[in-house]
Amino acid sequence: MGPRDGLQNEDVLVSTADKIELVARSVAAGITRIEAVSFVHPGRVPQMADAEAVMAGVPRSEGVSYIGLVLNRRGLDRALAAGVDEVNVVVVATDTFSVKNQGVTTDRMLEVWDEIAAATPIRKSVTIAASFGCPFEGETPPERVAEIARRAAAAGASEIALADTIGVGVPAQVRDLTRRVRAAAPGIPLRFHFHNTRNTGYANALAAVEEGVTVLDAATGGFGGCPFAPAATGNIATEDLLYALHRSGARTGVSEEVVAAAGTWLGGVLGKPAPALLGRAGGFPSERTS
Amino acid sequence: MGPRDGLQNEDVLVSTADKIELVARSVAAGITRIEAVSFVHPGRVPQMADAEAVMAGVPRSEGVSYIGLVLNRRGLDRALAAGVDEVNVVVVATDTFSVKNQGVTTDRMLEVWDEIAAATPIRKSVTIAASFGCPFEGETPPERVAEIARRAAAAGASEIALADTIGVGVPAQVRDLTRRVRAAAPGIPLRFHFHNTRNTGYANALAAVEEGVTVLDAATGGFGGCPFAPAATGNIATEDLLYALHRSGARTGVSEEVVAAAGTWLGGVLGKPAPALLGRAGGFPSERTS
């Protein structure tokens, strides 16, 4: 989700052409599912104002699907018109943050989700934001996350994602939430979304993989953050996640080198070094006995 | 080991007084075992040239023990004269790196270890460097790490540490090496040493804890690196490790806030921001419902 969550909090307005290049580099690396844009009010998130233009320019390869984030019926209509393959709806688990982020309480947003779900003819996932903690309310009750998951599933979610929006989670929470959400929404695939704000993001991602989760959000270069959460910082970086997965024996079909190069390139576009470390450190050293 | 591995690769020569303050801040935070200095040739590691002066100035509290790194008999004599409570001897697992780091092959260093061990009247640990990979030889055979651990134990090591000197390891390796070294050196306590060079350090640390390991190296602020390994970067940061442990339910007796403040202070001393994230992001948010 580099083109969406990776960019939305950046002060530098990235050109439509550069956003399309970021997507194209991701496709070239072997990534087959990309959250490319969000269809939210351009006054609220100016970086995403060109969502339609981005979607018109991304490479349409066989087997690559594009996700658009939507928060209401109007966003859904825009997303469908722009030709996304999936929509992703965010429901924030705590009321204070939900109101600040999207102007409605959690329960009201679940009603909006019901309306969106009923009107969506394509794949639709729900991302439960602040599942691991809230910048305003502190602890997020895991029972509340499970209940939101249950309601997401009841309206037909294709997938449920648990997001550590502010990067406070630890692996023990990953395992606990996985168990609870699987019980509350049986049979619905799980996805996780981690930020590395306090250096726990990669440990959380690997813990999710150990729990059998096969879908993880990440952003090229590790950029990102939430405009409406104080001190929120970058997503886990796709290239660093790939390094850890590959060295753990996983096969992803994605080139960590191509993503790392894209992360370094994106740092140039944004005028600051990528939080990702692989582009600086290089991959696992090859043998060069002297 | 912030005062030792955290500082030894920094270009800015830190004053003896600031090194003593770093140690004192660590003690004030509740840390009870500190690798404060190394007794190596000052021409090789200039940052450690004032080891005796540092040891003369550190607070001598009940229950706090100080470790000095030594690589030969002369270093041991200096360490004992300076009044350290323990010595730590580094054996590099691969010959190419061993020769570059300390001028001898691994087998020769194991003979040096035998000599040091026989002459050491206090606690003595062996740290096996490059246990997870070598900057020059690539893969480090885990069988070789286990064999070095066996020889370390045979000469009376109080503790064996496995070091990911260049930050290439992943949790699967942590678990594999834990099993192998426990079999090769039964009954000897294990310690791990991780660098976060490719964003796997904290995942590795938490994997070690899950394996029952109770001693982990870390450096205040996450500074550090090896002068003789290309692209080696910081140790895992003590404050970020504490955050993850505390949020996982562990009790350490160490204040993450005091360490985080020390990391920020140390960044000022070194003239660059600490790699640690807790000092920037803050701890887990307290409830402040608006």
TrEMBL record, chains A, B:
NCBIfam families: PRK05692.1. It comes from the Bacteria. It comes from Actinocorallia longicatena. PROSITE patterns: PYR_CT. Residues 1-260 form the Pyruvate carboxyltransferase domain. It holds the Pfam family HMGL-like. Belongs to the HMG-CoA lyase family. GO terms for molecular function: lyase activity. This is Hydroxymethylglutaryl-CoA lyase. Keywords: Lyase, Metal-binding.
